[in-house]
Amino acid sequence: MNDHDAHKEVPWRLTAGSDPGVIAFSGEIDFSVTPAVRERLWELVGKAGKHIELDLADLTYIDSSGLALLLELRKQLAEADRTVAIRSISPQVRKLFNLTQLSDLFGLPD
């Protein structure tokens, strides 16, 4: 591995938001990173309360594996009597949510 590879930026990031229960996504999520995203997501969900809000404002791309992960999150939270909603979303990801008719499932703001 050369120095360039060592400092190569990860194409995605998940962080706890400034408000309790907020999980912020940024970058690009596709099938090649979904397993790592899943691991980080469950770590953050474990520290969050009953209601979780997703901040997707800085998410520039998500493919079907990423959408499947969000649906899995919603299902598992519902089974635990917890909820999830989208707080904010980037225009390009909003188009995908509208196209796949997932907007209502996540309480997507207008």
Notable characteristics:
single chain, Transcription Regulator spoIIAA, 4-stranded mixed β-sheet, 4 helices, 39% helix
As a whole number of angstroms, the C-alpha radius of gyration is 14 Å
**What is the count of helical runs?**
4
Estimated structural class: alpha/beta
* N-to-C span: 46 Å
Strand arrangement, largest sheet?
Answer: 1-2-3-4
Organism: Solidesulfovibrio fructosivorans JJ]
Domain STAS: 22-110
Protein name: Anti-sigma factor antagonist
GO molecular function: anti-sigma factor antagonist activity
Give a structural overview.
The protein is an alpha/beta fold. The protein has one domain: STAS domain (Transcription Regulator spoIIAA). It is 39% helix and 29% strand. The chain is built from four helices and four strands; from the N terminus they run αββαβαβα. The chain has a four-stranded mixed beta sheet with strand order 1-2-3-4, with helices on one face. The longest helix is centred in the middle third of the chain and has 16 residues. The radius of gyration is 14 Å and the shape is globular. This is Anti-sigma factor antagonist. One of its GO terms (molecular function) is anti-sigma factor antagonist activity. Pfam families: STAS. Belongs to the anti-sigma-factor antagonist family.
Question: What's the layout of helices and strands?
Answer:
Blueprint: H1 3-6, E1 12-16, E2 22-29, H2 34-47, E3 51-62, H3 64-79, E4 83-89, H4 91-99
